């Protein structure tokens, strides 16, 4: 076996050299971005979407757009054809990156799919009128939008950048750090903007400290055999504004999600409403609004919601608030109820044209608990139910009926399956959605929603056909997706999130 070793060493050296020469795109980009978006491996992962692409093509969306373009749109059919050649996953098939900097500059670079890179470069060369060579790159300057933007390629990579970012790139300022891993990653850093914030002398110091409390957010998505995995990271600096940071960094566990009534989706979170009221009152006083007193001391730290969904598109259109059940923890239920009724009465005044509607209250009972049916101006009818240590606010009778039913989310086998796999103990927030049902409902409502405000006959015909095709596509997607679950946990001064959605590729 010794005779094979030289070949193994040669192969290892070749792979090492390839890794060194084919630098990742973040390693090429200038550092210090305040926001960015990065993709990788989409040339491989796009195979998961083949059936979705075939269905999209079968429904003829592209032909529909070409017909609309030929009938006098701003883009011609040829323009759309070119756009479809360029703006697809092959453009960033191996890698893609766009970064935005505090100066306002941007830097975008792509490593297309290996089998498409020559075609894309030939297309770019076709549209270059006065290209210039620079350090192995062929570049063209575009001043059509008022600010110079450079487009170009080096035979392998495509590039688009503002002048400032391009100069940094050629001056060797490289090495952008992507703060989170994933097939798709996105992030925003507030810290690079702090000098600009501090330079605004007219801003009160309290507001500056509040804004500097939010340090960064990053999210990522991975496409895998069973579905989509997501992760997020929300970082805060408690040293800036401890009271504000504490609102987003709870140490108490949320109500167990499975204890909520069974609906098509639900969420359970920790948010200290009393502390929030105190914070807003204090902040307002710093701006000279001493009269504002947001007293939420009667409320607790736990909130939840359940969506009952809708089986009737017409009913959904007539009810702008949907079929939601909001659950609020209370320390003093009677005071909390009076506070909430006062807000709703004030809201009714804003949502009611002069001489119409108003605010009415009718006593009733729901699930053995005292309740009130409320008419809140043009917002419609609500139901407020008073529990022992919580208030339930339902935006419809269907939502209120969730309290009458004995089933909990823990009785839903779809939820139980995902909860066992992906929900840890002690989360500070969690959500669940039966995506199949919500997409089916969306497919039923979409044509009605899109046709409501269209008067022109030609536009109406196009809108009807487009809405019908889109509804069919949503119905197709609904048959391929399942349920999803996500959660958040407090880790020091960071909120870590994770989630999963079932997809039958």
Automatic annotation (TrEMBL):
Signal peptide: 1-29
Domain of life: Bacteria
Protein name: DUF3352 domain-containing protein
Keyword terms: Signal
Organism: Oceanithermus profundus
């Amino acid at each position: 076996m010794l005779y094979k070793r030289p070949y193994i060493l040669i192969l290892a050296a070749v792979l090492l050299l390839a890794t060194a020469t084919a630098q990742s795109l973040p390693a090429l980009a200038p550092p210090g971005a305040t926001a960015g978006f990065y993709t990788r491996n989409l040339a491989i992962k796009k195979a998961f979407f083949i059936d979705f692409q075939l269905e999209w093509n079968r429904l003829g969306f592209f032909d529909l757009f070409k017909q609309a373009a030929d009938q006098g749109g701003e883009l011609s059919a040829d323009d759309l054809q070119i756009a479809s050649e360029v703006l697809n996953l092959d453009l960033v098939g191996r890698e893609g990156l766009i970064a935005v900097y505090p100066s306002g500059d941007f830097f975008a670079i792509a490593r297309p799919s290996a089998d498409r890179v020559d075609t894309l470069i030939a297309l770019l060369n076709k549209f270059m009128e006065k290209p210039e060579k620079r350090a192995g790159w062929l570049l063209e300057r575009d001043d059509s939008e008022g600010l110079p933007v450079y487009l170009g390629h080096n035979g392998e990579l495509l590039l688009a950048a503002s002048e400032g970012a391009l100069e940094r790139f050629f001056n060797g300022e490289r090495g952008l750090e992507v703060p989170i891993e994933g097939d798709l990653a996105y992030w925003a850093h507030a810290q690079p903007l702090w000098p600009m914030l501090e330079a605004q002398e007219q801003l009160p110091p309290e507001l500056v400290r509040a804004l500097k409390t939010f340090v960064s957010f990053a999210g990522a998505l991975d496409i895998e055999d069973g579905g989509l995995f997501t992760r997020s990271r929300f970082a805060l600096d408690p040293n800036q504004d401890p009271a504000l940071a504490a609102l987003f960094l709870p140490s108490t566990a949320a109500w167990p999600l499975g204890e909520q009534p069974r609906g098509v989706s639900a969420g359970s979170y920790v948010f200290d409403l009393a502390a929030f009221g105190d914070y807003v009152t204090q902040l307002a006083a710093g701006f000279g609004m001493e009269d504002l007193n947001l007293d939420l001391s009667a409320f607790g730290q736990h909130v939840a919601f359940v969506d009952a969904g809708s089986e009737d598109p017409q009913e959904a259109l007539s009810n702008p608030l949907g079929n939601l059940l909001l659950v609020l923890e209370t320390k003093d239920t009677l005071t909390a109820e009076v506070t909430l009724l006062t807000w709703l009465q004030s809201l009714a005044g804003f949502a009611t044209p002069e001489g119409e509607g108003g605010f009415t209250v009718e006593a009733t009972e729901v699930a053995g608990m005292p309740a009130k049916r409320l008419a809140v101006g043009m917002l419609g009818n609500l139901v407020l139910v008073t529990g022992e240590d919580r208030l339930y606010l339902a935006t419809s009778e269907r939502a209120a009926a969730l309290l009458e039913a004995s089933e909990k989310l823990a009785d839903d086998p779809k939820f139980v399956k995902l909860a066992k796999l992906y929900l840890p103990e002690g989360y500070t927030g969690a959500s669940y959605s039966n995506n199949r049902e919500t997409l089916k409902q969306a497919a039923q409502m979409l044509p009605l929603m899109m046709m409501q405000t269209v008067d022109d006959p030609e536009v109406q015909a196009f809108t009807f056909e487009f809405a019908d095709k889109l509804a069919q596509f949503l119905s197709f997607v609904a048959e391929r997706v399942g349920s999803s679950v996500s959660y958040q946990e407090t880790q020091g001064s960071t909120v870590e999130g994770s989630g999963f959605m079932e997809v039958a590729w």
